Amino acid sequence: MADPASDPELKPAGLLRRLAAMIYDGLLLFALLLIATACFLPFTGGEAVTWARSPALTILHRVVIIAVVYGFYGVFWTRRGQTLGMASWRIRVQRLDGSLPGWGDTGRRLAAAVLSWLPAGLGWIWMLFDREHRTWHDVLSHTRVVALPKR
């Protein structure tokens, strides 16, 4: 029997479910970012990482933060199509053909998500008017978020 999560006919996930999963994942990601930042504190004497104190360390810190975010979503999305928050709310990100996103898809989706938030969240509001209930980052990354059936 085929995996129901790979069914291309699954219905799009609603805005509230997606936002709830994002809040859940945001808490997990925040904890990871705190740990990553704490690793820099021995090099700053326990002070904040700032450009005025150390430009090179600031650049390295920003690269690490981006890598943690990319790694967090990339590991979950490329292996299961779900982060922990998405699994809790029974939603999944997938390519338009129903397959799991790759690392390139993850990068495009995350970059496009920034665009969805920039104009006051207009890229998210867009899904309320889109026939297929897609956000800007869904459209730009050729992915979609679907609601999974109860087991």
Your description of this structure?
The chain has 151 residues and is mostly helical. The protein has one domain (11-147). It contains 7 helices and 2 strands, in the order H-H-H-H-E-H-H-H-E. It has a two-stranded antiparallel ribbon with strand order 1-2. Helix 1 crosses helix 3 and helix 3 (55-79) packs across helix 5.
Question: What gap, in angstroms, lies between the N and C termini?
Answer: 14 Å
Range of strand content: 5-15%
Helical amount: 40-55%
Separate helix tally: 7
Unreliable residue stretches = 1-5
From the spread of the alpha carbons, the general shape counts as elongated
What class, by secondary structure content?
mainly alpha
What is the number of independent domains?
1
Radius of gyration: 17 Å
Query: What would you call the quaternary organization?
Result: single chain
Mean pLDDT: 92
Number of DSSP strand runs: 2
Largest sheet: 2 strands, antiparallel
What order do the helices and strands follow?
A: HHHHEHHHE
Widest sheet: strand order? Answer: 1-2
